[in-house]
Design goal:
By secondary structure, the chain is mainly β. The chain has two domains: 34-134, Immunoglobulins (Immunoglobulin-like, Sandwich), CATH 2.60.40; 142-241, Immunoglobulin-like (Sandwich), CATH 2.60.40. 3% of the residues lie in helices and 46% in strands. The protein is built from one helix and 16 strands. The strands form four sheets. Strands 1-3-6-5 form a four-stranded antiparallel sheet, with no helix packed on it.
Length: 242
Amino acid sequence: MGAAGRDSHYGFGLVSAAAAVASVSPPVPPDPAVSIHLTTDKSSYISGEDTAAILTAVVQDENGVAVSGLDSAAFVTTGSLTSASMFFAETVTAGTYTASLDLTALADDTYSVETTVTDSRGLSATDAAMFDLGPAPVEPTTVSVDSISYTEEGGKNSNKHLNMKIALLDDFANPVSGATVSATLHHDSGSSWNGSATTGSDGTVTFTLKNAPSGCYETNVTSVSTEGLAWDGVTPENVFCK
């Protein structure tokens, strides 16, 4: 406002609040859209044992808000299972729909399920999920951390040192020996300790923290490596306080 340049009373001038606000463009709203994220409850099913696959569809609008209230007619199945009869129904979670796919008449194969959803505005989106159907494996394929346990030893009260034992099982519930396990032990003070060792014939490996301070501990397994088996990547819940 006023003449350009410095003013003896107002410095470099005054700002018109109305003009300043008007010069700022409002954010452009996203274009109307709908999205669907489709998953199955398993990636592999065993023929003759698994009778159905559960499909879950999460439907959202352009703002990431759950799209609720759709009926089964809003979902159309395509892909290699076009002729399959599936009826999606909304769960207690808004915008989340599930359907059951009968597996009993399907031959062993790899299948792709494509589902298109159309919302009340007539907007559509498609997503796909794949799964395998076949006989049960005759050899184990995965390794899991079955348990993490803690014991104390040493010192006047037998609690000076902390032992942390990790037990591994394969998907046939057999102990996994010869696996290299890496883990991080976290303390509630923010300190942490890393270790790596190999499981024995009983499928366990034990790490020891000497002169362990008082407080609460939690272990996070960072890797499990063994020939012929893939780690599922899961660390079971575990906390120990001393």
